[in-house]
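Dig into what follows:

_____
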Amino acid sequence: MVRSTSSLHYHHHSLLSNHNTAIALHLSPSDLSSNVSTPDSSASQDVSSLLNYTDDGQIAPQQINGHRLEHQHQQEQDHIMESSRQAQEDEDQDSERRALALELGQGQEDVIMTEEERRDQLEKERKATVISNLAEQRKMIGSPNGHLLEGDLSLDARLDAIIATEQEGAPFPVYGLDEQIANNMIENCIGTLGMPMGLAFNFTINGSPLVIPMAIEEPSVIAAVSSAAKTISSFQGFQATAPERNMIVAQVQLLDIKDADMDRVMARMQEQEKAIQEEANEYCTNMVMRGGGVQRVSFHRVRRHVSRESFKGQDLLVKHGVISPQIVPSRSQSGSSSQGRCSEWLVVHLHVDVGDAMGANCANTVAEGIAPFLAKMSGGRIGVRILSNLNVDRIAKSTFRLPFSHMGYKSLPGKDVAVRLLEAYEWADLDPYRAATHNKGIMNGIDAVALATGQDWRAIEAGAHAWASGAGTYSDRSSEHSSLNAQESDQRESGKQNGSKRKFRQDTSEGCEARISRGDAYKPLTRYWIEEDEERLAQGFKGQDALMFCGELEMPIMVGTKGGVLSTNPVHAFTLGVMRYPDSKQLAMAMVTVGLAQNFAALRALVTEGIQRGHMALHARNIAISAGTPPASVDEVTAHMIDTGRIRLGAARSYIEKRGLGLYSAGMSANSSNVSIMSSSVHLNNNNNNNGGPGRL
């Protein structure tokens, strides 16, 4: 029989409270026990031991006589009182832990249920939750189509399909990658790895509601981001922007250009920019036909290392005749250069409009194709030809504004939450140790959307952290420096900020930075501030009521909605359909918005209730699953470990054995024949092996 955790907690607390009352009123233990109903003897025995009851039922070493206590045992009584106080202190310290256990234990009734019945009940609850959330989202979008037409790309039809699938009893509406396709996608394939995929609700971006799929194994991320989106969408929602053109940068490195020739070579290539552009477009004719292709060309001088200590080894190559001394900078022990030989490289950037593709293959093709033409024009030697994952031509931005009246959270008033959020942001801005974790939370949201929609999350991560490090600025060694300096001058004169925290650094006579530089410090990707709202002032709001809490996330995001692996995995077709089949610009805006919402949710939790309470439950839940707990009993085992304070694998397995639940493995699933996004399948990469379908681990 399953004992209600809430009943056990109430019984324990009642005994402690009544015991303290008994001491004050000089009642006997028998009088005390007569007023308490115990669910079972074991619980009563545990509490009795805590209260120092003797075998004859008396509170040792007190002797009751006519409701008067003897004073000759004052020392023992003091000891009992101290024990009681200590027990109460322990109870107070465990109150949060027990409250959490009670939450997890809700719904566990004192009835005998088979594992199959519990599994059915859990599935019904899950379906009810999913359908309820989807139905609420449907209200935001409009009336349903009534049926799903083949090829219908509308979001309401997609949601209708999910709801219908849930109601018809299928475990999940999304299935994973076929093993045979996976076997042909990569080398040495042994299977596919499944991840949980869910939907983030409550987003309103540029006035339009949006459901966003997220694939992530970390609990609470989807719930947190949906909660933050609900708060922000309750006012004005998110405003997002992205460049009109979906650009990517192809880089070509040109080496062995002598210092004396560099100015002349760079000037000549700038004059021939149109010819370079036309030649480069010969290697992306399909993009040109779609209105894209190479749109412009820029040139960047990258200064090489000038000290022996900063780049070891080249002197040895010169000494032993591996390379010519004419192709390395002249170096002194102090690190100064005498402007000899080849102190710089010339790097050509080809800015390619790749339409709605991510564009990596196109950029690499253009870079490799145009390289001989550039080498002949410059007289240099061809070096590396590759795309760049730091793409400042593809900056997406999302912002929100909230009055203090919408900022209240967990019993804290909005003004207090706003102040604490600003303090947390300031810490991240000053401390790179904190900034790293701050930005990791942002990428929790962005990477989850990238995984669900088939994007190269590794490229997005690389660009994000380079941007956070201050990279993406220009110097006077870049052909784009003069135009950017003019823009910066105009901004200073107008006194207006463009909303970006990016500042273009001034180079010194001691050395000029290349465009792609390391930056001064690692910074948070988001930005928060307080401003006074003119509209609210005009409406009669005064003081704090006129203040707005503002948030912003601006970063490079390279995504595509056509080409690549999107056509090979059916999951991506489904998830992009849920998002109304966005173009690359819309997908970038959705991803940067999720990153901002996730960061806002994380900071809000950190500055109010903290994260340990939630992490305690998540850790216990993972331990319960690792111990082999049947899915329908995970809540019960989790609640037991939290209630006892023993969150360990051994404790979970001991409870499973005691309850007779039996160990669970993925192979026990009733739908093991399906390749689901929620499962893992293993298949050896042997083209001659045709024995059966996917196995469940």
Remarks:
- The longest strand covers residues 293-303.
- The first helix runs from residue 5 to 25.
